[in-house]
Structures are given as C-alpha cells and as structure tokens.
Amino acid sequence: MANSNQPLIFEQSKTGRTAYSLSALDVPAQPTETLIASDYIRRKKPELPEVSELQLVRHYMALSRRNFGVDNGFYPLGSCTMKYNPKVNEVLARLDGLTHIHPYQDPQSVQGALELLYRLQTNLEEITGMDAMTLQPAAGAHGEWTGLMTIRAFHEANHDSKRTKVIIPDTAHGTNPASASVAGFETVTVKSNANGLVDLDDLRRVADETTAALMLTNPNTLGLFETHIQEIAEIIHAAGGKVYYDGANMNAIMGVTRPGDMGYDVVHLNLHKTFTGPHGGGGPGSGPVGVKKELAAFLPKPLIIQKEDGSYGLDYNRPQSIGRVKSYYGNFAINVRAYAYIRTMGGKGLNQVSKDAVLNANYLLKRLSGAFDTPFKQLCKHEFVLSGSRQKALGVRTLDMAKRLLDFGYYPPTIYFPLLVDEAMMIEPTETESKETLDAFADHLLEIAREAESNPEIVQEAPHQTVIKRLDETRAARHPILRYRKNDREQQ
Ligand SMILES: *Cc1c(COP(=O)(O)O)cnc(C)c1O
C-alpha cells in the first residue's frame, strides 16, 4: 500500500481525453430522433470527467486501497459477524449455469437452480429447527419485517385483533423495534436483569392478551445465552403470543442447538453474516425466514417446492400468504454462496464453527478483562461487551480508543451499543481468525489502555496514521456525495 496515503485528486478532467475507443459504425447512421422518443433525447452533453484509461485505473485502484474489508485485516465488529468469505463460494456463484439463467424462465428449464434453493431451504430448516422457510427477504431487517407480518397474518386469521404489541428487550438490535413499528405494531420494552438476561418478572408483567410476539436473540445482543429461554417461551405462549428469534448471528449455536427446540416460532437468518455471504457496502444480503407449521400458510409466495414426481416448482397456490416480499426468488447469488458454504462445512463443520467462535470470543475476553471493565461475569458466546468506563474516568472515551485502533490497522469494534452498557465496546472475533491475530489485537488494545493512563493525548487525538482523521459523521451521513458532478467539491 505504498502510496495509499497520498491525497486523492478528483478533478482530473481535461477536455478531449478518453478512456475508450469504439469501433467504426458498420450499419448506416440514423438520426437519433428516429431511434429514441424526443422526450428522452439529451439536450446537453452529460458533464462527465474526461480522463485516460490509465488515470481511470489508478483512481479506482487508489480508492479500493482505502477501503477496509475482511480481506485486508481483522474486523471485530460485534453483532456483524465479519467472518472470512471463502473464495470457493465466489467460484461457484459464478458458474455459467447459475449466472446465465433468468428468473422469468420456465421452472422446467431451471431445475438445477430450483433444486439448489430447495436444498438450501431444507438445510436451513434443519439448522434452525423450523418447518417451512422462505428465501425471499433481502436482508436481516427485511426478514424481521416478513416474520412479523407472518405473525400478524396468523393472529388476524384467528380474529385475534387485540394483539398490537411486540415485546423487545432493552438489549435488542435497533432493527427489531424498527421492523416491529414498520409492521404496524407498538413496541414494549422488557428490562434486562443484573446478569444481562431478560428479567422474567418484568416479562410476566408486560405479556398479556395484547402481545403479538416477543422478539429475542439468543445468545442475546450482549453475547449471553438466555438460560431461561424455555420459560420465556412458555410465558409468551401462555399469553397467546409468538416468539421471534433474531438469527442474524447464529455463530454461537449453529449445529449445537436450534431456535425451534428452544420454543421459538419464527426465525430469520442473515446469510450475509453467519453463512459467509460477503457484506458491507449495502448488500446484497439474504434474510431467509423460517416458521413452525402453524405459521407456514402465511409465508410469502411463491415457495419453492419439490413435487410428487421429484421435480422442483414454485407454489403460488397459497391463499393465506402475506404475498410477495421481493421480486423473483430473493438474492439468488447470495443464496448460492450460503449453500456452497453449508455443503463445504457439513454438519460437523458447522458445529465446529460455533465452538471455535465461542472459544475465540472467550479467549479475547479473558485477555482483555484485566484492563477493561467487564459488566457481565459469565462466559460469553460468540461476542462480548466491555465497558470503557475506567478509561472514561481518565478522560479517554471509547470513541477515542476505537479511533486509536485504526492506527494499528484494525477495524474498530461496535461502540456505544448496546445502550445499557456505559462506554460499550462490543467485540466479535469470529471463528475464522487465528490465535496470532487474536493475540496481536489484544496486545494493541492493552497498549491503548496503558496509553490512556500514561499518555491520554495520543488516544484522544487518534487516528494519527490514516489519510482522513475524524470525520464530521453527521455531515457525512446527511450530505453524502455519491455521484460525480462537475465542480461539486467547490460547492461543498
Ligand atoms: C445485522 C443484524 C440485523 C440486521 O440485519 P441487516 O441485514 O443489516 O438488515 C438484525 N439483528 C441483528 C442481531 C444483527 O446483528
């Protein structure tokens, strides 16, 4: 990365420079007006940069080197499961037979693709302990919404119209309350106890005849296993509600236990997290939803089925379905990658993944717990939450430590989430990292903790090694520059 610290120059355009050449016209030229409706014809030339091919290549190469991904380095972003994406998945997703087909083709002519999706569905049903599965949803949040709409349709079919509330613990991922409200529910918060687990008394207090569902991740968003999960499910079921599993991160339990066996009725998965689909940059993702039998009729349509003659097809004959939630069959190529991953690992392999993910997280927790406050004392699952409150007393915030990690070449952990931990730092190493990587990361974070005591300025003023220092994050989010416009930079 020799020159990756040089400033990028965006205004390189010189009139008349091109990065392409087109072959001579081999058909008679026709006036544009005869080919395109006049409304669509440009009146003015587009203001595009005029650059040479070499300039173009260097510009994008320089940009790509500034990108940080799991292929560049350690990415311990809690709740995001930034594991390595095996390259064999890419090879398989690119196979001609899978890329040169079209979703409008007659199902008879794409039996292989349908079989793959059907097998993926069946494998995911087995992994989650569910009876039916849709592969349509495009991401985790979309899966949550789909699952909740399915629950809503179930209650409506039973004329149970009082069920307007979804119970969500205070540790939940932000998409949970958001999805519940987009699905038309009110959200009710259930408190966590001092051990970071659902407070059963509080749950009994809030669960009643207005409860449509409880949304609960297990292990929860603190990385802790809800040991009373069966009791929790019983409380909700006794009140007439359904139990929803946010399975975005299955990394601690895959092949070990199943939401279906814990008493859950609905689960969504993030194939772009647990099942090695690449993510970041906005997708594409895949958020399949699995349900127990009594909810199956309400899943989106079509479902992929195997017919009596053994062939595969699309079942549209589903009168109680909530309808289609995504065009075609979901994000096909991500589903191919997930299927490739499941087949490569096998059942034993997936079980080992969970054990290694939990081992790696506990190893890091142990190494870091002397220098940072650990709000919860029990063993963690695939991730854990530290508190930077000790460092805060020295004037060093968790944000400062996260920025300091950039100097050492790491993507920082998730910070200030979950909200109930002061100065939270949520670390998820995943199973794909080696002991050497974990040790190097722990050494650097321990060094930062020592710096907070001996030389706080170096942490407070970090990062020192990156091209761009601290961003105005509000401005970056509110006024992003996403496309080239001549002289745009001068207007900013
Ligand atoms: C990532 C995540 C989600 C949301 O998934 P998207 O694909 O980003 O919509 C939901 N819940 C949890 C626990 C997550 O980690």
Number of domains: 2
**Which class best fits the helix and strand makeup?**
alpha/beta
Instruction: Describe the largest sheet.
Output: 7 strands, mixed
Shape type: globular
**CATH class category of the largest domain:** Alpha Beta
β content, as a range?
Answer: 5-15%
What ligands does this structure carry?
pyridoxal-5'-phosphate
Tell me the total number of β-strands. 12
How many whole angstroms does the radius of gyration measure? 26 Å
CATH topology group of the largest domain: Aspartate Aminotransferase, domain 2
Distance between the termini: 29 Å
Helix amount: 25-40%
Taking pLDDT < 50 over at least 5 consecutive residues as the criterion, the unreliable ranges are none
CATH superfamily of the largest domain: Type I PLP-dependent aspartate aminotransferase-like (Major domain)
- Rounded mean pLDDT is 94
The sequence of SSEs as H and E is: HHHHHEHEHEHEHEHEEHEEHEHHEEHHHH
Helix count from the secondary structure assignment: 18
Please name the CATH architecture of the largest domain. Answer: 3-Layer(aba) Sandwich
Strand order of the largest sheet: 1-7-6-5-4-2-3
Domain Aminotransferase class V: 162-280
Modified residues (N6-(pyridoxal phosphate)lysine): 273
Pfam families: Aminotran_5, GcvP2_C
Subunit structure: The glycine cleavage system is composed of four proteins: P, T, L and H. In this organism, the P 'protein' is a heterodimer of two subunits.
